[in-house]
Amino acid sequence: MQFSEMLKPENVRIVQSVDTWEDAIRLAVKPLEEGGYVEPCYADNIIEATKKMGPYYVLTEDVALIHGRPEDGVLKQQFAVTLLREPIKFSEDSFEVRLLVTLAAEDANSHIDAMRVLASIFCDADKIAQIVSLDTAQEVYDAFVEAAAE
């Protein structure tokens, strides 16, 4: 599945802050739930997995790839992007995160091409710095789409 099919403009949001890491997960999953891509239990399953394994999805400073397993409530494949103006820590010793990319994957393989695009973004500190400084959800969406076209 192409990246442009996996991220829709309505699934990109900018929020000032959240109180807890659990709130961050629920907020990051919400566009996928509202769009019918995941069941309401998806966020709860990710929160439970985090309590057992720690914040396995925090990749680097500013970036988390929020995801659960397909059987945790995924209905259709899709991404959502949530940008927090004020960073959140998912544990005392984790990085501060502002960019939450949420993945709903139907299986282990069909999202691989889209993940390559994300990997190229996540490995580029300048690109991340640019994205977290953008002003509107449309600008954030456009930055991801442009990165996919490179």
Polypeptide structure, described:
It is a single chain. With 150 residues, this protein is an alpha/beta fold. It has one domain: Mannitol-specific EII, Chain A (3-Layer(aba) Sandwich), CATH 3.40.930.10. Helix content is 42%, strand content 26%. The longest helix has 14 residues, at 21-34. The chain starts with a helix and ends with a helix. The mean pLDDT is 92.
Keywords:
alpha/beta; five-stranded mixed β-sheet; Mannitol-specific EII, Chain A; 150 residues; single chain; 26% strand
What is the strand content?
25-35%
Q: Uncertain regions: pLDDT < 50 for 5+ in a row? A: none
CATH architecture title: 3-Layer(aba) Sandwich
* Strands ordered across the widest β-sheet: 1-4-5-3-2
The CATH class designation is: Alpha Beta
CATH fold title: Mannitol-specific EII, Chain A
Determine the number of helices (DSSP H or I, runs of at least 4 residues). 6
Structural class estimated from helices and strands? alpha/beta
- Specify the CATH homologous superfamily: Mannitol-specific EII, Chain A
